[in-house]
Give the backbone structure.
Amino acid sequence: MRVLVASGPTREPIDPVRYISNRSAGVLGQAIVQEAHRRGHRVAWVTGPVAASAPKTVRVASVETALQMQTALRREFRKADLLVMAAAVADFRAQKVAKQKRKRGGLPNKKWTLTLVQNPDIIAGLARMKRPGQILIGFALETQDGISSARAKLKQKQLDAIVLTKLTQSVPFGHQPISGAILDREGSVTPFHRVSKQVLARRILSVAEERAGLR
Ligand code: CTP
């Protein structure tokens, strides 16, 4: 398969030196890229700003903002058989990016109010461009009502499967084990409990290969 993986955070600038972002470290994305490559798939990787290392034959596009990620994915998506959208896209960006560094002084009441505007839902937009046979797998990071929220996202974003990761005591970013479930559009729910990101990467690719009729 031609596999397209998106991962890592996005970074939304406020001025030339400051930005809004999130805690994603892109570890799961990297594991998916490595596993897909190990299984002999052709891999393209769109990654937000994290330290990313990939096998030589993997085509890597590094992006910063959600809008750049959307452009890179739109370009790659038509060539892909499978998209695994593990990116932690910032849902909002600054309405205006200041051209000069905002100075510490000179603010009324020492307060700086930022107006944020919504970023596009990248995967939902790609799902609307989907051709028959393409497989889309998304993620759902939830703090409550995990399964029902993930199911709603699966439907609303028109995905083939969604990987619910639960945000419990420890944030599911970085190298620690994670728990959650893989849900598919036919209604099946397959839980996973405290697995490493390498193990989860294998399960996700097995689900995709099965859907593609390769297993
Ligand atoms: N996603 C996306 N574009 C966005 C936000 C999310 O493509 N602007 C993708 C994520 O990569 C993930 C899925 O949509 O595969 C769900 O992301 P999540 O952050 O769980 O959900 P949101 O759609 O942002 O909804 P909410 O913030 O209300 O939970």
